[in-house]
Amino acid sequence: MARLDDRLDREFDPKTAKVLARALDVHTVGELLRHYPRRYEQRGELTDLASLRDGEHVTVLAQISAVTSRMMKNRRAKLTEVTVTDGRGTLTLAFFGQPWREREMKPGLHGLFAGQVSSYGRKRQLIHPDCELLGTADPGTEMAAEHAAQIIPVYPATREMASWKIAKAIGTVLDTLDMADDPLPAEVRTRHGLQSQLAAWHGIHRPVEYAEIEPARLRLKWDEAFVLQAVLAQRRRAEDALPATPRIPRRGGLLEAFDARLPFALTQGQLAAGEEITTALCREHPMHRLLQGEVGSGKTVVAVRAMLQVIDDGGQAALLAPTEVLAQQHYRSITQLLGPLARAGELDGAEHATRVALLTGSQGAKVRRAALEEVASGAAGIVIGTHTLLYHRVRLDDQIVFDDLGLAVIDEQHRFGVQQRDALRERARGSRPHVLVMTATPIPRTVAMTVYGDLDVSTLVELPAGRAPITTHVVPAADKPHYLARTWERLREEVAGGGQAYVVCPRIGAEDSAGEPAPGADTGEDTGEDTEAAGDDGTDGEYELYEEDAERPPRSVVDLMAELAGGPLAGLRMRMLHGRMPAEDKDAAMRAFADGSVDVLVATTVVEVGVDVPNATIMVIVDADRFGVSQLHQLRGRVGRGGKPGLCLLVTDSPPGSPARDRLVAVAATVDGFALSRLDLEQRREGNVLGAVQAGRKSGLKMLTLLRDEELIVQARAEAQAVVDADPRLAGQPALVSAIRALLDEEQAKFLEKA
Ligand code: ADP
Ligand code: MG
Question: What pLDDT sits at residue 380?
Fold first, then answer.
């Protein structure tokens, strides 16, 4: 009898188990069963051959209409061409040197054919496809048992493992499946009208009628949502039980002095979030809070105030940014905001003043050692660095140890999970720090619930008063070339009027297109090197570019810089900024732009998050169609941060009516980040979203779609919470416990792979 957590080599011969592992990355019975059909074919209803695209790996159900063989020119081999049809179009199956195919492939037979689509002249073809003949068109004749069914599941297949082979393997385990108990408690199933898990496995993999598929799918979605929410509920409970040092606000401390010096009034949202955080910091258990707010909503000030509350009660605070550019900028702006409050030990330092330490991977050993010492001694109340400093031992002799880390603020983080939190605890001696995660990518409710399910959320909805609006226009460079010329003119006007400009494009330089990372460049934030993300595809940052319909490679910073400086922007003071520059150069470029000695910064998405130069009033995004919706929204948030209105121009070659163009029109039409993040989520594959949001997890969600299944996720969360509250260790739920273990194993494996 097969059990869900049995390894596949117990069910199959070693060779089959190995192929399954290699081809599908499935290792247990449960994982194999969670390899769900992509779609179903109805016996007799043939695949629409007109829908096939070159390059696709496909499995088609079609009828053989003709078979011909001939000798190849200049070759000894015989070419057998089998024409198959869906009743309208045709597809050619080509076999070289397999003359026996002619005997096997009888016109009139139906079959499943799997392979990669290519074109030969005007004909679509599959070369050496995998074939599975289904007998004749009339039912009842010599058909293999597994083809007797009317509904044929079509699985995501690979070269090594055709769809029907997967079906066969799944059939084998289904036949012997032993399901003593169910991870979903019976009451929950009854309340929500859900079938048993065993019924669902059968319904999804071997439906006899179409009507069986939907209930099975619903039940399996519940599994995903419920098991994940049970994990999160347990984590919340465990975190709530941990001790943390309460940090009580103090009269006459740094926080009061800071508020008194602030050059502006806090917004209602900043005050409200501040209160929530103050209260949480006073508790004896660690805070885990997500602070989300539009770009420019002023999250940094909220964070600084929280940090000062902690310092006032004797603790230290760390502020961690995703890039060095941003860490350095935070360092500059926070020391400036604090003024004498950050100059302890200096002549003009205020009473009770603290110090701010900056730690980056690129600083010299001496500077770094001095900073580390200020951190270890407690002299520095605020420590600013990059995310990587947290969970990587940059150099062994170089570990950060805090004297008394009370609060960690993680800025612009899209992937902050439990592992990072554990790393944080290692850095702090003794009790757990409070944690505040900040993001400007507004997260739809279900994503927040699923990905950040164990965080509380504060939201800044309004922008500070007096913020001038950002106007966005699409510049169709291909159909209206004079618009592009006008764009550069407009940029010159902005500079002439005292403003500054960003020009952003997708790639770094021409030489990076080979896909070979430049020496020293790393591939993401999760590496030990403390330089920031420069992807091996020559982009900066964590998003994939949109490549659909792309007819040429995207523009690069290096090329564009040369082109603009020698042409439409000649005479302006320009600098480049991208992830592959040495850290000092990046910092110098950013500083020069911030102090106004540069008019135009030509950059990759390194300027995407958090960069704050209030005098920048215009941003031109070249090849804007290559970016995702949220990313464009993030990018344009860099302008209009001072008193002057911001202008964002999205330059594109995409034709009117194309999906890419529509995406840009949508971005231009609204500045509502929540609306845009929903749109973004709809456009991306779920896996990408979760992958970008947090390492791991993606394996846990196969059926569930975070947007469409919102209602289900909310219900599953409530049910899971109730089960965990009643039985925190889940002693009475053995099947749920093993489902949780399977999910965590996968998550852990994925995390380790990344690290
Ligand atoms: P984000 O939320 O995008 O990180 P920042 O914290 O960088 O935004 O704030 C953007 C700018 O707004 C900064 O220059 C900051 O000093 C300023 N700012 C913050 N709060 C206010 C406020 N209440 N009134 C006016 N300006 C503010
Ligand atoms: Mg910010």
Answer: 94
Nearest CA residue ID for atom 12, ligand 1 = 298
Q: How far is the CA of 458 from the centre of ligand 1 (A)?
A: 16
Pocket flag, ligand 1, residue 19 (CB < 6 Å) = no
**Domain locations in the chain as residue ranges:** 39-154, 254-460, 470-670
Report how far Cα 340 is from the mean position of its chain's Cα atoms: 40
How would residue 551 be classed by pLDDT, with cut points 50, 70 and 90? low
What DSSP character marks residue 618? E
Nearest CA to ligand 1 atom 22: 464
**Residue nearest ligand 1's atom 10 by CA:** 296
CA of 494 to the centre of ligand 2 (A): 25
CATH class of the structural domain 39-154: mainly beta
The number of C-alpha atoms within 13 Å of 526 and in the hemisphere containing its C-beta is 18
Instruction: State the distance from the centre of ligand 2 to the C-alpha of 565, rounded, in angstroms.
Output: 30
C-alpha distances in Å from residue 517, one per residue of 53, 183, 556, 691? 31, 45, 15, 21
d(CA 403, CA 316): 8
Q: Are 579 and 604 in contact (CB under 8 A)?
A: yes
CA separation (Å) from 723 to 176, 185, 229, 418?
A: 30, 9, 10, 22
Can you tell me the distance from the alpha carbon of 101 to that of 83, in angstroms, rounded to the nearest whole number?
A: 12
By the 8 A CB rule, do 619 and 499 touch? no
The first and second tokens of residue 743, run together, are 């999910």
Provide the token pair at 220: 């399996």
Class of 470-670 in CATH: alpha beta
CA 402, CA 398: separation in Å to the nearest integer?
A: 12
CA 487 – CA 502 distance, rounded (Å): 12
Q: What are the φ/ψ torsions at residue 247 (nearest 5 degrees)? A: -120, 100
The yes-or-no verdict on residue 295 having pLDDT over 70 is yes
Query: What is the residue-averaged pLDDT of the chain?
Result: 82
Identical fold for domains 254-460 and 470-670, yes or no, is: yes
Q: What is the spatial distance between Cα 261 and Cα 658, in angstroms, rounded to a whole number?
A: 51
Q: 556 falls in which pLDDT band (50, 70, 90)?
A: very high
* Secondary structure element (H or E) that encloses residue 623, with its range: none
- Does 329 sit in the ligand 1 pocket, CB within 6 Å? no
Cα–Cα distance between 566 and 663 in angstroms, integer? 32
Q: What is the DSSP string of 268-313?
A: HHHHHHHHHHHHHHTSSS--EEEEEE-TTS-HHHHHHHHHHHHHHT
Q: Evaluate: CB of 299 within 6 angstroms of ligand 1.
A: yes
pTM of the predicted model over 0.70: no
Spatial distance between the Cα atoms of 755 and 752, rounded to a whole number of angstroms: 5
CATH class of 254-460: alpha beta
